[in-house]
Design a protein that fits this description.
Number of strands: 16
Structural class: alpha+beta
Oligomer: single chain
CATH architecture of the largest domain: 2-Layer Sandwich
Largest sheet: 5 strands, antiparallel
Bound molecules: adenosine-5'-diphosphate, magnesium ion
Shape: globular
CATH topology of the largest domain: D-amino Acid Aminotransferase, Chain A, domain 1
Distance between the termini: 32 Å
Strand order of the largest sheet: 14-13-12-15-16
CATH superfamily of the largest domain: ATP-grasp fold, B domain
Number of helices: 9
CATH class of the largest domain: Alpha Beta
Helix content: 25-40%
Order of helices and strands: EHEEEEEHEHHEHEEHEEEEHEEHH
Strand content: 25-35%
Length: about 300
């Protein structure tokens, strides 16, 4: 098959691994920087150009869209979907996973457990919202934050109020801020499950090395291999399915009431290979080999 990896970082470990495995398995593969793609839309003729000429015909695309370029990247993916090209992650699934509020609503609908979450557009509701969460401490997070930036732990009601007021000042629209129950029993630790085609192919625990409550590797967290329970595995697979993602990095916390899903990443990093010794690139290429020829299933998620 002729495969395009849509990635702005051809030198990234993840991109290199996908390229290497695709080649080994006999495919033709090219890395396409989607930020340098441009598109033309007219009746029945959606085209994508790259480096001054038509992108050309690919059988499959593997989108590795960075969160800072979600809108542009998903628009290019959508344009290629319109040409009938198979994509391992659909543009709509990538877009929905980038919005934590939308994700939480979909998890709720799919019966996936999560930290209790509230949102509102009025700072006048703060007292009531905090009460719904059982009081401080609470987590306040931006719906479109990544790498732990935009996640705040408010220890007291007073702190929560002032943080929220500051956030509301920046964003009039209440859908960009979530207030969440603080999962204190495993603060500073979360688990990443790497899912391909409804199966967990690798899992690691991430632990913050200082007193930060955030375990993001970008915040200096450390990853170690971890084994999931059956319940956890099922929950992670369900969360990826709720997003409509075939390839996903599902993050959850172990709590007193079982696994609580935090988020699902549409372009999970492959650093998990180094931590766990598991190959995640091969299952992705195998998944494509098994599914690219079939008609893509219609997205029935409805949000
Ligand atoms: N409700 C919560 N309770 C306790 N810790 C949390 C909670 N939500 C997030 N965290 C911590 O903060 C980190 C970042 O939060 P997350 O929602 O994954 O945002 P990001 O997209 O920035 O990674 C998580 O990995 C976890 O360690
Ligand atoms: Mg995270």
């Amino acid at each position: 098959m002729k495969i395009a990896i849509l990635s702005n970082g051809p030198g990234n470990y993840s991109t290199k691994r996908l390229k290497e495995v695709a080649k080994i398995r006999g495919h033709e593969v090219e890395v396409v920087r989607y930020r340098d793609c441009y598109a033309s839309i007219e009746k029945n003729n959606p085209t994508v150009s790259y480096k001054g000429k038509d992108l050309g015909r690919f059988d499959v695309i593997i989108p590795r869209i960075a969160s800072y370029m979600t809108k542009y990247g998903t628009a290019i993916v959508r344009q290629l979907e319109m040409q009938g090209i198979y994509t391992v992650s659909s543009s709509i699934a990538i877009a929905r996973s980038r919005d934590k509020l939308r994700s939480m609503q979909l998890f709720s609908k799919a019966g996936v457990s999560m930290p209790k979450t509230v949102f509102s557009r009025n700072s006048a509701d703060i007292d009531d919202l905090l009460e719904k969460l059982g009081g401080a401490p609470v987590i306040i997070k931006l719906a479109r934050g990544t790498h732990g930036n935009g996640v705040v732990l408010a220890d007291t009601k007073k702190a929560a109020k002032s943080v929220l007021q500051a956030f509301y000042l920046q964003n009039e629209d209440g859908t960009s801020i979530l207030i969440q129950e603080f999962v204190k029993e495993s603060a500073g630790v979360d688990i990443r499950a790497f899912i391909v085609g409804g199966r967990v192919v690798a899992s690691m625990k991430r632990q913050s090395l200082d007193d930060d409550f955030r375990s993001n590797l970008h915040k200096g967290g450390e990853g170690t291999k971890v084994k999931l329970t059956d319940e956890e595995r099922k929950m992670c697979v369900k969360a990826a399915r709720a997003m409509g993602l075939n390839v996903a990095g599902v993050d959850f916390m172990r709590s007193e009431r079982g696994p609580l899903i935090l988020e699902v990443n549409a372009s999970p990093g492959f650093g998990i290979e180094k931590v766990t010794g598991r190959d995640v690139a091969t299952p992705i290429i195998e998944y494509i080999e098994q599914n690219a020829k079939r008609r893509p299933k219609k997205d029935k998620i409805g949000a």
